[in-house]
Amino acid sequence: MSYGDAMxxxxxxxxxxxxxxxxxxxxxxxxGYRGASLAAxxxxxxxxxxxxxxxxxxxxxxxxxxxxxxxxWDAVPDSRWRVDLLASLVEYNAMxxxxxxxxxxxxxxxxxxxxxARDYFTERYVRVRASxxxxxxxEYGDRLPNGLTPERTAPLLVAVMDGLxxxxxxxxxSVDMPGAFRDFLALLGEA
Length: 191
Known about the structure:
The structure is a single chain. This protein is mostly helical. It folds into 2 domains: 1-61, Homeodomain-like (Arc Repressor Mutant, subunit A, Orthogonal Bundle); 74-191, Orthogonal Bundle (Tetracycline Repressor, domain 2). It has helices spanning 3-35, 38-44, 49-55, 59-73, 83-93, 97-110, 118-140, 150-170, 177-189.
């Protein structure tokens, strides 16, 4: 096999893996992690379950790939986020209901004992709270106008972001996720 053929095969394998991850996102969004099966994902991409196992040897390995892919879409740039850019992130999320639905389904299920995404979400929230505290500190200093520290406010900020996603998924016609988040940001800035 020539170098070019090997590179082409590797590219095709990468494309197939990406297709499987997209299918897994859809299946998890529809059925939740526990309700999603490797067979359902394999069927969606035209593979047998054995064929899928060539790319992802376990359901947990596929879950890790799904979570990593989601993190790539929401990757925080090396530069600091600003509070006003968080509103843009919420607007961007409103354009991706399937991703938000998958994330929300996995998050909800991850609170159960033994769920394979539990450690991922626990560690993710530690990072996100620290990141949000940094955003708030850059905007307001060591105290927000309401007197709270950035560290005390960060969990509230994250809770509003995630809670709005659940409400929006349940009733997108009634919940203006970006507008409600901008309203919350306005509350942060009030004395």
